[in-house]
């Protein structure tokens, strides 16, 4: 993280980031608003994005007062197949952000999942946090369940731990193991740190395996768990503090009750103790987007 991105309580934070957290626009679009001289700070036109907003400052965009920026928030989202991880798609395909449940702040994704990939996607209202969580230097493993078609060579899977070069692209170590096999179809568990574009699909194709389903089940300490497809759940304040060192407001959403239909994991990693369930009938137990169970 650069010095410019480090928040100084006395100086405040850069106005483009402040506007993004306030839900006005993305950081880049906020900079465009500043360039068009549409932003004022304490009655003066903002000339440069290198302007800092402190507590109590009055910010106006197009003459309209902007409310206080929200504290940093982080959400787990179960991305379904068939959505593009972008705000706008030139081909007109449905996007993750168009399909998010109502009532959420403006969010950006931590990395991406491609059109046909499913599973855990982290979303945040803080672009600086998103960039920080994407860095391979965090050492966070991204873990996937991968269904493949073809003949699995377990020796070749083991060799992936040494890294591999495919079509001139060098990929770092990949941990891959066979979980189950039925005929020419198999389920693998694949873990990696870097996560280059379509990395798993390209590496599996190099091993003459065709990926027919790809589900991300973990991103660092964050797990997909039983979050239903299309649902969103806010990461609680304790996890934000312990895992990211961020003091955040308490979440408004707790765990859902509907289970996700995923293939069983043979050796699930140790999981933190789940928070105590709320009383029956508490509406906050259901994540955004989760559908009630039907008989």
Automatic annotation (TrEMBL):
Catalysed reactions, semicolon-separated: a uridine in RNA = a pseudouridine in RNA
The keyword Chaperone appears for this protein: no
Source species, domain of life: Bacteria
SUPFAM superfamilies the record matches: Alpha-L RNA-binding motif (SSF55174), Pseudouridine synthase (SSF55120)
GO function term, MF aspect, one: rRNA pseudouridine synthase activity
PROSITE patterns: PSI_RSU (PS01149), S4 (PS50889)
CDD domains named in the record: S4
UniProt domain RNA-binding S4: residue ranges: 13-72
Any Gene Ontology biological process: enzyme-directed rRNA pseudouridine synthesis
Alphabetical list of InterPro entries matching this protein: PsdUridine_s_RsuA/RluB/E/F_cat, PsdUridine_synth_cat_dom_sf, PsdUridine_synth_RsuA/RluA, PsdUridine_synth_RsuA/RluB/E/F, PsdUridine_synth_RsuA/RluB_CS, RsuA_PseudoU_synthase, S4_RNA-bd, S4_RNA-bd_sf
Region ranges (Disordered): 243-295
Keyword list, A-Z: Isomerase, RNA-binding
A UniProt-annotated Pfam family: PseudoU_synth_2
The EC number(s) this enzyme carries: 5.4.99.-
Nuclease recorded as keyword: no
Family stated for the protein in its record: Belongs to the pseudouridine synthase RsuA family.
Protein name, entry field: Pseudouridine synthase
């Amino acid at each position: 993280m650069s010095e410019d991105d480090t928040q100084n309580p006395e100086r405040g934070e850069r106005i483009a980031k402040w506007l993004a957290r306030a839900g006005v626009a993305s950081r880049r679009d906020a900079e465009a608003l500043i360039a068009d001289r549409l932003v004022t700070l304490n009655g003066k036109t903002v000339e440069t994005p290198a302007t800092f907003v402190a507590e109590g400052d009055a910010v106006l965009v197009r003459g309209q007062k902007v409310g206080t920026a929200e504290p940093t928030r982080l959400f787990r989202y179960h991305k379904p197949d068939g959505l593009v991880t972008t705000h706008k798609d030139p081909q007109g395909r449905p996007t993750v952000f168009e399909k998010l449940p109502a009532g959420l702040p403006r969010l950006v994704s931590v990395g991406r999942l491609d059109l046909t990939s499913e599973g855990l996607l982290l979303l945040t209202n803080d672009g600086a946090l998103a960039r920080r969580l994407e860095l391979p230097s965090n050492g966070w493993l991204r873990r996937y369940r991968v269904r493949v078609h073809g003949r699995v060579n377990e020796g070749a899977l083991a060799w992936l731990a040494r890294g591999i070069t495919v079509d001139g692209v060098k990929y770092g170590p990949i941990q891959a193991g066979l979980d189950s096999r039925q005929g020419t179809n198999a389920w693998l568990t694949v873990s990696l740190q870097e996560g280059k574009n379509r990395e798993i699909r390209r590496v599996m194709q190099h091993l003459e395996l065709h990926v027919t389903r790809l589900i991300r089940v973990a991103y660092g300490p964050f797990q997909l768990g039983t979050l239903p497809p299309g649902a969103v759940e806010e990461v609680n304040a304790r996890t934000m503090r312990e895992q990211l060192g961020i003091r955040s407001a308490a979440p408004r959403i707790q765990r859902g009750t509907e289970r996700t239909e995923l293939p069983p994991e043979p050796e699930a990693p140790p999981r933190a103790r789940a928070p105590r369930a709320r009383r029956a009938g508490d509406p906050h137990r259901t994540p955004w987007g989760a559908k009630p169970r039907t008989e």
